[in-house]
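Submission sheet (multi-component)
Chains listed below:
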Amino acid sequence: AQSVTQLGSHVSVSEGALVLLRCNYSSSVPPYLFWYVQYPNQGLQLLLKYTSAATLVKGINGFEAEFKKSETSFHLTKPSAHMSDAAEYFCAVNPGHGNQFYFGTGTSLTVIP
Amino acid sequence: DADVTQTPRNRITKTGKRIMLECSQTKGHDRMYWYRQDPGLGLRLIYYSFDVKDINKGEISDGYSVSRQAQAKFSLSLESAIPNQTALYFCATSERDGYEQYFGPGTRLTVT
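Outcome: structure written.
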């Protein structure tokens, strides 16, 4: 079975500091990988996705993620946190071949002024 | 107009009642999904459908049923609601393998 692990259910950073949210997946083949963001009282929206093109993927709002096959990781980063980045972030995997999506348990990001 | 809509947005019901949550989409996608979100547990898949004639159980299907009335409509039913089904429910759609899912705004369900 597939699994997605997000290390750290809560992450706090100061405004202007680096944001690093970790995601590891289990898959026998490189899957399709996604990061979603959920703002309070809203649904999930796509931040970025990896679909076997470039390993460094750029998304919206200055976020990017790097696919590292050897580490089965897809960590999300942003060089400088903004107050508006405070939200819940979910990593998701789609193994392809007609499979469903698998979501991590989420990381809540707090940005400290 | 939103591409994926859910009704109702909020619902309070009593234990033992039957309730239906509805999802409609205008994206023309064949694949539709129902998830529930609980604090600390992330999103868990209840049911998914890859086309009108295809229905599959997800991780936590017990106590739930679904109906795919058309390509654009996918309903989730709780035949006899219980308090631990209190959660935020999301509908989502996707086009095919490798494509992202698009989420509805969610339905907050409370079972008392």
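Remark: Chain A has a mean pLDDT of 91.
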